[in-house]
């Protein structure tokens, strides 16, 4: 990492495929009779967990260069897995397959790593139980998740929180359940499930926060080309904005409105970032150009924008630390239930360098600060990929080597992160 310091960054980059879309393509491919080709999938730890779970249910998945091929015997020929389904560090895998397996009327035991063991699963268990699922949790809240076979029926469900994982778990459970399931969302969360289910032939509609799915029909296999992940792109974008003389372009990245909240914040801050949309068939796609911006304005965000940038808040906190004005994030209590408590992690680590925070249960204010970084300061990544990548960007822009306890979790969402930055290094 040391050679990335004292440098500026330029050039063009393609970030790896979108994690949320890759998970869903594997699951819908496994449910749809026939063959689904997934082009440019995200080949990461989290998506491999979904791949292994789909194999354990009976889907055949072949891997070749930048393409995964899923061949399914059809949803009604999938079977109860022989072993425990291991979901690693992936909340998306854990919650979505709970809905998928309940909907198939199969049995399973699902568990993940130490972080997954602390993430709440009652948020999916409750609506699925209303549908007739039999799901047992440890202390009525946490994995391991034990599912017994039952027959489900459709429900109307008003979600207490905006969560694409909860929404998607219910939609997966209702796919082969006869009748109409309706979900009311409090604010729009990522809509990849709705877009892809329509492509796979499901009878689904979505309007003004109300999603309706009429279940009981088989899915049709379909090919998916995965766009670059804007949540991964956020790290090099912020690096370019904060690092003197830098100017980069990211090609082929998802611009789906339910995911692009970070671009709105960069705009509020007056950052030198421009966006060009290149296509809009299903998932919007385009190019983002980001360049060094010497003076960044403040921002205040809460409400509907939060689900649109939920995974980008750790890197936004870093941006805020270099703003000359106050920056506030509220309504983001969900951050406390991610791979780690991301509000705590960001406040604890950045405070070590003079960043002034006021912490709230649901967010934080970053006050204009004098950031002062000592070479070789020890920082903690909490085994959380997004905290680790934020700290790496911090180390680079401050030109000080930070000693991060463990960086291996980068592979959860962005294998090749350091290599990508290296390729953009100006004097490389
Ligand atoms: O559905 C998805 O693919 C995801 C939804 C979000 O979680 P919640 O649904 O818990 O908000 C997000 O934080 C996660 O990284 C991926
Ligand atoms: C929260 C995340 O993922 P998951 O919920 O799938 O673990 C993330 O990628 O930041």
UniProtKB/TrEMBL annotation:
Family: Belongs to the EPSP synthase family.
Binding, 3-phosphoshikimate: 19-20, 24, 163, 165, 311, 338
Binding site for phosphoenolpyruvate: 19, 91, 119, 165, 342, 386
InterPro entries, per database record: Enolpyruvate_Tfrase_dom (IPR001986), Enolpyruvate_Tfrase_sf (IPR036968), EPSP_synthase (IPR006264), EPSP_synthase_CS (IPR023193), RNA3'P_cycl/enolpyr_Trfase_a/b (IPR013792)
Protein EC: 2.5.1.19
Keyword tags: Amino-acid biosynthesis, Aromatic amino acid biosynthesis, Cytoplasm, Transferase
Source organism per UniProt: Salinicoccus sesuvii
Residues in coiled coil: none
Molecular function terms, GO-annotated: 3-phosphoshikimate 1-carboxyvinyltransferase activity
Domain named Enolpyruvate transferase: residues: 8-421
Chemical reaction(s) catalysed: 3-phosphoshikimate + phosphoenolpyruvate = 5-O-(1-carboxyvinyl)-3-phosphoshikimate + phosphate
One Pfam family this sequence matches: EPSP_synthase
Principal place of residence: cytoplasm
Assembly notes: Monomer.
Origin: domain of life: Bacteria
Compartment list: Cytoplasm
Cross-referenced PROSITE patterns: EPSP_SYNTHASE_1, EPSP_SYNTHASE_2
Pathways per UniProt: Metabolic intermediate biosynthesis; chorismate biosynthesis; chorismate from D-erythrose 4-phosphate and phosphoenolpyruvate: step 6/7
Protein name: 3-phosphoshikimate 1-carboxyvinyltransferase
Function per UniProt: Catalyzes the transfer of the enolpyruvyl moiety of phosphoenolpyruvate (PEP) to the 5-hydroxyl of shikimate-3-phosphate (S3P) to produce enolpyruvyl shikimate-3-phosphate and inorganic phosphate.
Lineage: Bacteria, Bacillati, Bacillota, Bacilli, Bacillales
Gene3D superfamilies linked: Enolpyruvate transferase domain
Record: active site: 311
